[in-house]
Amino acid sequence: MWNAVTRAISPALGRCELSHIERTPIDVALAITQHHQYLRALDAAGCRVLTLPEQAGLPDSVFVEDVAIVLNEVAVMTRPGAPSRRPEVASVAELLCHHRPLEAIEEPGTLDGGDVLRIDRRLYVGQSARSNTDGIAQSRKLLAAHGYAVQGVAMRHCLHLKSAVTALDEHTVLLQPAWVDRGCFADFRIIEVDPGEAHAANVLRIGDALIMPAGFPRTRQRLLDAGFKVTAVDVSELQKAEGAVTCCSLLFRSDP
Ligand code: GLY
Questions:
Q1: Quick one: which atom of ligand 1 is closest to the CA of 82?
Q2: pLDDT of residue 157
Q3: pTM of the full structure
């Protein structure tokens, strides 16, 4: 069974970190409603949803994906690249330590979970403003012990690697070619986002189900045409906080 760790939205969401988009007003009440719909989509996809209480003083804390890499064998607590986000780590570690042995990225390393794309035993890690060379090297060393290969990936014009590319299954990726080179994923079948839907590459895979943001109908049609089962969820207010669907949960199996 899949577990999905999530966190209730902070009332301070409007003061979130932003890197590549303009700040626009966020309707926090609507964000909370949309987050509930996201939780229902996780439930419908077969997840047991665990929702941590809000952290009022931590605007970005709903984006739990960034504070850990959870694998079958181990969880690595990250050291987020934005200093404002580092206090988010401890409470998620308190929960995950009941499910996995914990490791941690140490200073001077930085790593955001949003930069980590796992496909089978390979982890692709975005060389972003949030994940530095030392953080990627630490993750490579920690995870080699568990049989995973970690590979840095150059990227541009977006916050995290998973803004630019996500896995649809073990053989197929959804990719935004303006933000990451196709050649980095030459071993996979590549479906590109529709050229008019720049932010559509962030899709959450749970088994054979996919959750993607509403508002990208042409990319969604490409996935349907390729035979994928897709649920669209409106996360417009989270998108204003430079979030999407992968970043709002940490998925791991209870029967690894
Ligand atoms: N607002 C998401 C982030 O910058 O981490």
A1: 5
A2: 98
A3: 0.98
Cα of 227 to ligand 1 centre, how many Å? 32
Which helix (H) or strand (E) is 145 found in, with range? none
Catalytic pick from 16, 35, 158, 160?
A: 160
Residue 47 is a catalytic residue: no
Task: Write out the two tokens for 223.
Answer: 């996935």
Confidence at residue 147, expressed as pLDDT on a 0 to 100 scale? 98
Q: Is 242 in the pocket of ligand 1 (CB under 6 A)?
A: yes
What are the φ/ψ torsions at residue 135 (nearest 5 degrees)?
-65, -40
Phi and psi torsions of 252, nearest 5° = -155, 155
List pLDDT tens digits, range 75-88: 999 999 999 999 99
Q: Does residue 160 have an active-site annotation?
A: yes
Contact residues for 13 (Cβ-Cβ < 8 A; gap 6+): 26, 28, 31, 59, 60, 62, 237, 241
129, 81 Cβ separation under 8 angstroms? yes
Tens-place pLDDT, residues 193-222: 999 999 999 999 999 999 999 999 999 999
Q: Give burial (CB, 10 Å; 0-12/13-18/19+) of 27.
A: middle
